[in-house]
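quick q for whoever's on today - can somebody do inverse folding on this one?? i tried earlier but teh output was garbage lol. tokens:
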């Protein structure tokens, strides 16, 4: 007697579920970017069939960017935010959502530039057959710092998690800073000081003096990462000469500031131009180390 066939439910996420999760994670995504993340090997029109029901149900809305180009960028409505509030893949998000066309238009340049950088890593990972998925890039990750002068928190433009398979299986994590040349070069370089402060930050326990052994075991960042993530600066929005000078200023900071020098001795730091990442891929020798020799290399070799 043969056993009856047991029909198992489909446990894979639908394209609609994945699209909603992607928009929630990244807060604002152009239609073309959703297509590249979700279904890159299908005709672009397919993604519209996924987005239209979400819009009809009031879960997403969009703003039009780029004037006559008609480029649409999508964000969650309050109903969409409520719908994804308990999804396990989105737990721990701390980036403020974008919930209106005006906010979307105002934040689109920086937000979508960050997504461009993410897509460069995603495309490269697919070619290399590494483990890196659309949700492995988390924007606007915040860590508190001791309020002893300067900023009392660090807000990284993104943190990503990546697993390479060749030549051996290695887990990587990186803080990402997106520079569109909208701030002074000095202010950009000062971000390295903030990362150095996070690296050294040890929370003090009330009423108890910490020993050296205590300090080594209780760095604040160890609550979140097994190793301190490398720090990657991705630059765009200016001439090659201007971008090269900004990278040079980042390198100077690693030798001019004692805290940053100590950070650079222990944590890989690098900078690259966004257009180079898109053309050649992040694993190509397009990254300038911020300490030591300036020979370009892939981001995993920093």
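ok took a stab at it. sequence:
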């Amino acid at each position: 007697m043969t056993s009856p066939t047991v029909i198992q439910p489909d446990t894979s996420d639908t394209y609609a579920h994945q699209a909603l999760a992607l928009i929630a994670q990244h807060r604002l995504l152009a239609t073309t970017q959703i297509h590249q993340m979700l279904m890159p090997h299908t005709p672009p029109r397919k993604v519209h069939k996924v987005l239209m029901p979400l819009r009809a149900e009031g879960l997403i809305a969009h703003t039009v960017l780029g004037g006559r180009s008609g480029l649409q960028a999508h964000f969650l409505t309050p109903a969409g935010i409520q719908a994804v509030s308990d999804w396990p893949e989105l737990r721990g998000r701390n980036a403020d959502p974008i919930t209106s066309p005006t906010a979307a238009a105002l934040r689109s340049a920086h937000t979508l530039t960050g997504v461009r950088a993410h897509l460069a890593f995603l495309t490269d990972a697919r070619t290399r057959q590494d483990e890196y998925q659309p949700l492995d890039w988390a924007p606007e990750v915040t860590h508190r710092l001791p309020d002893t002068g300067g900023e009392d928190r660090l807000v990284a433009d993104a943190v990503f998690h990546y697993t390479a398979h060749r030549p051996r299986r290695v887990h990587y994590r990186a803080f990402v800073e997106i520079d569109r040349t909208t701030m002074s070069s000095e202010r950009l370089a000062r971000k390295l000081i903030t990362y150095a402060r996070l690296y050294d930050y040890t929370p003090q326990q009330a009423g108890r003096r910490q020993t050296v052994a205590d300090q080594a075991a209780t760095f604040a960042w160890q609550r979140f990462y097994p190793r301190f993530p490398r720090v990657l600066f991705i630059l765009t929005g200016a001439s090659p000469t201007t971008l090269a000078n900004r990278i040079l200023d980042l390198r100077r900071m690693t030798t001019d500031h004692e805290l940053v020098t100590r950070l650079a001795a222990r944590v890989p730091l690098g900078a690259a131009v966004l257009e180079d990442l898109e053309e050649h891929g992040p694993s190509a020798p397009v990254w300038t180390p911020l300490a030591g020799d300036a020979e370009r290399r892939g981001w995993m070799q920093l």
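fwiw Residues 130-302 form one domain. also The radius of gyration is 21 Å. so keep that in mind when u check it
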